Amino acid sequence: MALNRRSFLTFAAGGVAGTLFTPVIWKSIDDTAIWTQNWPWIPRLEYGAQAYAATTCKLCPAGCGLNIRTVSGRPVAAEGRTDHPLSQGGICPLGSAAVQLLYLPARIKGPMQKQADGTHQPISWDEAEALLKEKLAEQRGKEDAVVCVSGDENGTINELFSALLGGLGSEACYQMPGERQVASRVLRQGSIGYDLENADFVLAFGPDLLDSWGTIVRNKKAFGAAHPIGEEASAKYVYVGPMQNITGGAADQWIAVAPGMEGVLALGIAYHLLQAGLTAPQAHDFVSYRNQVINRYTPDFVERLTGVTPDQVAKLAEMLRNADRPLIVPGSSIAQGGGVFGFAAALSLNLLFNNVNVPGGIQVLPDLPTVVPGAQDTALIRARDFVAYIQSVAEGRTEKPGLYMVYEANPLFALPQPEVTALAFEGSYLVSFSTFYDETAAQADLLLPTPTFMERFDDVQTPYGSGFASYSLTRPVIRQPIFDTKPTGEVVLGVAKALDIDLGFTSFDKVLEAKVSALAELEGFLVESVQPWEARTGESVSAVSGNPWRTISRGAVWASIAEPFPTEMLLGSTIISQTAPPDSEDWAFPVSLVSMDSRTYGSRHIAIPPFCLPLLHEQEIQGDVFYVWMNSATARSYGLQAEDKVQLTGPSGSCLARVRIFEGVGRNMVAAPLGFGHTAWDKFSRNKGDNIYKVLTVRREPGSNLAVWADSRVRIAKA
Amino acid sequence: MEEKKGGSSAGGVFLPFLLGFVAALAFGWWGVPHLLYSKKTQPLLFTHQNHIELYGMQCEDCHFFRRDGSFSGLPDNAKCAECHSFPLGDHPEEIRFVEEFYEKGVEVPWLVYQYQPDNVFFSHAAHQEFDCTTAGCHPDVGSSNEMPPLFQNRITGYSRDTMKMKTCERCHAEVAAKEPERFFGAPNACQICHK
Amino acid sequence: MVLYLKEFKVKWGMVIDLDRCTGCGACMVACQAENNLAPPVDASNKRYSMTWMLVYQLSNKQPYPNHDVAYMPRPCLQCGKPNCVPVCPVIATDKNQEGGIVSMVNARCIGCRYCQAACPYHARYFNWHDPVWPEGMEKTLTQDVSTRPRGVVEKCLYCHHRFMYARDKARIEGRDPNALAEDDYIPACVEMCPTNAITFGDLANPEHKVHKLSKSPYAFRLLERLNTDPQLYYYSQREWVRRQGDNFLEHETVGGV
């Protein structure tokens, strides 16, 4: 054989022929195909043992139980908890997106200090806590120079804050506005509860029961249980409110009434009830109430103010009278900024049906005992009007505090008239404990991030809107927080010690343990097979014996249906007459603004979570422009069409949006969603839409002097 | 020009062809696999046979079904630490486990011979009736104190011994032929094995 | 192509009560978390949104004050005669497993989107882009559903992995995996719904609730006249809602008693 071209070619031919008898060609094609399926930037799954950790959600005040599913200890999904009475296995869209919040890009990864150029630089916890101590010590002794505002309505941590402030000479402990401010004007001690499960007719005057008010998931479960598929409904839900929000849409009937006017309709109904002979002999002011209602809230007057015809009002009264266990739920359609008038007026109807502290009616629920020595009375803190305070500081009528502490709240975004809030905060030292880089944290001088509720111990005491007193723990799902965060309870205890203020506890766990053992002062039981509303109708439960810390720390829920104290019943005729809305038209701002709150948009201190973004449909947001909704008649009267760019202008600010024609909005009203227009946070929620809080305007309700804004008015014009 | 002899002409073509043929066969069957697969060893030496015979353990002590029906697979540090949270003897590998992995909180990165892609769902519970070592799925590591090396495909990253789909399909079809009701007539319905 | 016309002994199906759905979207979020979908930065362009479960808003189209609204959650309807199966050139999707869930093998899909075009309910989604998780969020991926690269179609599978786990649990406990109890296997959306609007079960089993509910005069299916035979029924006592289920003429009556 010669080494020439022919032999080379035949050698090559032999090679090709031989290759066909090997697996090489097939294998290389197969392997390449597999290689194309394995791009390294697509994450691989990590396998492990699956487990569930029972905890309680703190993303909003509803206090639902959550089961966090973990794989090898890594949280992967949040599910409902079948053994928690406020969840019963259900979950809301915000809770369902909770686990992904652990890794939101907007998370603050460690303590930070604001620099001269406005950026935040990381510092160590030692430095941060020393700085906090130094700043608090500077304000010591000066009256109310330290202000604390907490967005956690239900946590025992508020006791630590008020005790700390007390030790510094300050009583300025506030909560972010909610329904409690108003409710506390009507009930001084304890809170008002609503036994939805046992009612057969639920009439809501404003509260968005099924989406953003009170004990949201529990309300939905009650609604669902009352309307079983394929069977007769056992309760009727009627919604009186400005628009067909989630509650208005799902209810059996929706009656449109402008925000702030719900109380007028309630008294219009009372008119019929009183004419029909209903009385409330147990109320001391029945006679004056009756006179006021019969004289003022005649069908014509009610029609003029609310637009609801006399027939409709009479029909509503009749439906109430035909019910066995009617329950009237008062409140604001955005669970904040409502006035005492509407609340007291709607609440008074319950007394006409004598349903206080009976199954299916209004319940007076006890406040759980305070355990931190020196803590203020919960009722006092709840009753304080934070918005009125902020306005007063901004206007110079109250001395500006030296230091603000903000916990689980975002006041620089989520309070009406944000520019006024900014003025009130300007110049004071701002400390934020926020988990996320929200608008308040972006302005804060010192950031001391608390971990998410899945990474810390915390608790939820009776949420507002519940039908029973309750207590459940928030337990950490992972042993170590993901980032360099520290539970605020520990920080407060630490700084108190450094300031020589004795709060009586060495760690926050001990505070919670003390709270649990204090529950023995009340008559309660652990929720197992009998739900609290079933206990109200006679199902027997065994009382808690001994110290339930062991079971509660493992996830058990404590509840109580005991009546705390005899309550003096008043129909509220004085309050109602003092706070009645003026009978006037506002021509400068002719359109009634209906703000919408929904857990789809996050909560008061959590921006829209990434997984909730697909829930917003094309007529809620397009790119970075959001929509305001009005019915076609309203649009016509202002010369607007669908998709028009408009500007909503209020007395203190304006917003840009597009028009959506939605017939589920009342006459001469424009509906706009809250929770948009973030300027901090991250790419998931930043710069989407505009902040409707800018067009909410605060006024003082006559008679109560409460700051109210749920009934704000705007001008609307093409932009 | 000289005339070439006919016989040598034919041999002149045949021999290079044969050489090329054989070379290709050798390269395809021996050379390519040698190049394609990298030999990897387990991060720690685990002495299966000793643990079974000397320490009285059984397979199910570490490789068991959990209560929810899933299979625990390879044990994690917590399982080993039930005995080995501190060195029980002075075997260097055991000390390595304690010092380099357990105390540092780093899971031992065991190599899986049968590692399947993420889109494959395999249920050990459904295959309980087959013996782990004789059914042809797993190497019999239990009867030895050495652990076979893992031959990892450099292109795909999978092990050479990772079962291909056709092996699963064949067995499913064979079982269905014998017991038609087992798969209700669809032994290789896609979603039985894919996720 | 396998006989997708064969009669299944078990037909996993749902009955969704449109009078009880409040449109909150908890089902949508639960589905994304359960099935390892990537969080979208801008989900307002619905052509790129991956929403295996999608809640539509229905309207009776009456002006205020007679307006009524309803919400319709729409997962894959798992049709009895699916349009998407016969058009797939590589059999990446099939309907051959007992239970009747239309399968989807993402790895086999070549991304031609013929199935996406064929589905009359827009229940199939194409990965136009690679999924992107913010740093660290990939640690919240469950171990139950593979992650999909760009270029493949995906759709709701009624949480098929939960079906498999329920069968495994039955095997370990010595029960028959082919005879699961009604609450052994529940998809994530059904489990999370706070108003219990979705009922899930075996349509062919007279002991399951869905069996009876699917026969109710208030039950209807979407685009019934396309003959896709979906395993998903909707239920509404409101006639205007039922009328939106298909293109009915003025004079045609729609269910009810």
Describe, in plain words, how this protein is organized in 3D.
The complex is a heterotrimer of chains A (719), B (195) and C (257). Chain A is of the alpha/beta class and 719 residues long. In chain A, strand 9, helix 8 and strand 10 form a beta-alpha-beta unit. The termini of chain A are far apart. The model of chain A has no long low-confidence stretch (mean pLDDT 94). In chain B, helix 4 packs across helix 5. Chain B is flat, with a radius of gyration of 25 Å. Chain C is α+β, with helices and mostly antiparallel strands and 257 residues long. Chain C is globular and about 50 Å long. Chains in contact: A-B, A-C, B-C. At the A-C interface, strand 3, helix 3, helix 8, helix 9 and strand 22 of A face helix 1, strand 2, strand 3 and helix 5 of C.
Q: What topology does this entry show?
A:
The complex is a heterotrimer of chains A (719), B (195) and C (257).
Chain A: H1 5-20, H2 24-36, E1 50-56, E2 65-71, E3 74-80, H3 93-96, H4 98-101, E4 112-114, E5 120-122, H5 125-138, E6 146-150, H6 157-167, E7 173-175, H7 179-186, E8 191-194, E9 201-205, H8 216-226, E10 236-241, H9 246-250, E11 253-256, H10 262-275, H11 286-296, H12 299-306, H13 310-322, E12 326-330, H14 340-352, E13 362-365, H15 378-383, H16 386-394, E14 403-407, H17 411-414, H18 418-425, E15 429-432, H19 439-443, E16 446-447, E17 458-461, E18 469-474, H20 488-498, H21 508-518, E19 525-526, H22 532-536, H23 549-552, E20 558-560, H24 573-579, E21 591-596, E22 621-622, E23 625-630, H25 632-637, E24 645-649, E25 654-661, E26 669-673, E27 699-700, E28 707-708, E29 713-718
Helix pairs in contact in A: 5-20, 6-20, 10-12, 10-13, 10-14, 14-24, 16-18
Chain B: H1 6-36, E1 37-40, H2 48-53, H3 59-62, H4 77-84, H5 92-102, E2 150-153, H6 165-178
Antiparallel strand pairs in B: 1-2
Helix pairs in contact in B: 4-5
Chain C: E1 12-17, H1 26-34, E2 54-59, E3 69-74, H2 84-87, E4 93-94, E5 103-104, H3 114-118, E6 124-126, E7 153-155, H4 160-172, H5 188-192, E8 198-202, H6 209-214, E9 219-220, E10 232-235, H7 239-243
Parallel strand pairs in C: 1-10
Antiparallel strand pairs in C: 1-8, 2-3, 4-5, 6-7, 9-10
